[in-house]
Amino acid sequence: MNPLLFRVEDRPPVLTSLLLAAQHLLAALGGIIAVPLVIGGALRLPADQVVALVNAALLGSGIVTIIQCKGVGPVGIRLPCVMGTSFAFVGAAISVGMEHGVPGILGSSLVGSLVMISGSFFMPQIRKLFPHAVTGVVVAMIGLSLVPVAIDWAAGGAHSANYGDPVNLGIAFLVLVSVIGLVQWGKGIISASAIVIGMFVGYLVCLLMGKVDFTQVQHAVVFALPQPLHFGLSFPPSGIVAMSIAYMVTMVETTGTFMALGSATKTEVDGKRLSSGILCDGVGSAFASLVSSPPVSTFAQNVGVVSLTGVASRHVVAFTGVMLLLAGLFPVLGALVVTVPQPVLGGAGLMMFAMIISAGIQMLGKVEHTKRNGLIIAVAIGCGLAVTARPELLSKLPAFVKEVFGSGITVGALVAVLLNLLLPGRPVESEHEHELQARELEEIASEAA
């Protein structure tokens, strides 16, 4: 694990913070914009309505990111979290939207968010279900589930006509090598900015090769005011049930992401802190519905940015929230960032997501080597990878089953938790274990300082 250049409470100079925040923006913006584009395309919405969804998603993601990082009373985990519209809700959103339109999606999301808000009050109990063996599996599965995404980016984008073109792979490789070199041999801000510098190198090469498409920039409006309740709200019972299930799945994934973030930032994530983070996810999604955005959740890919750069400052990522907010108000800015070619994202993404896997392996390395723990780790990762590598495995099963078990992260987490509860010889959870874990993290943080 890299030593921390900036710890959670550190406040780098403003210009430095903006540069470091830009890395998180580049890692997240594509995913945030993709969700409303996919939903709008599936529902065949007019172009102006798709634009309204995109602007709302950027605005909502920015505001909730700031709250998650800075905290407002009991809301917000106060760690470097980037919030954004989540693909975990896409399946439910499209199924609801086909019958009830965008108002049905937003109304169902608003009511369904109560599941996450209610669940946040039970996180101290849920935290006890995540001993070292389970947590390590979840963190490793987050990285393993994201690596195929980076591979698709590096190859030119999933379903692209030139998928796997040697030029795409070469650009991705150039970015990857640049990032590795800057992290390994760069000093201070150069090392911390490795991702954004490496992506700039790749972007410059693509620009010289004529592989950057500025069409979206030309068509983007310069300024757009937010439009709360632009689509209206409706509350179909079937839609509320579908969204509630999606929120339960997201709560499991978000818990794992927070645990991974705790490892990356060398911070003890106890039940109380988990409660604040999950509460922000729930309240943030309710707020997103009111500003006409799909639900939001914590982005796992940004944990890789923290792991790779050693920049754990929550104040830096709060600047990312400000940038997302501005992108929602000035769509032309978001359109400019989206011009970054997929292979450039792939080279950086592969490094970021692999760092999450590395963090999970390091956590699993500290687990006691017993037959029981070996079974939990092996079966949970195997089942999680089965869904990740072959999603068509669930194609013949009911929609409800696909909704719950469609994510390798969720499958890995649920299998690990269940095996930990069911296999005989389960260690008794104690406050002493959590105190030891907290002390270990404090020692690591003090050494890094």
UniProtKB/TrEMBL annotation:
It is found in: Cell membrane. Keywords: Cell membrane, Membrane, Transmembrane, Transmembrane helix, Transport. This is Nucleobase:cation symporter-2 family protein. Belongs to the nucleobase:cation symporter-2 (NCS2) (TC 2.A.40) family. It is a multi-pass membrane protein. The chain crosses the membrane at residues 50-67, 79-98, 104-122, 134-155, 167-185, 192-210, 316-338, 344-361, 373-389, 404-423. Its main location: membrane. The keyword Aminoacyl-tRNA synthetase does not apply.
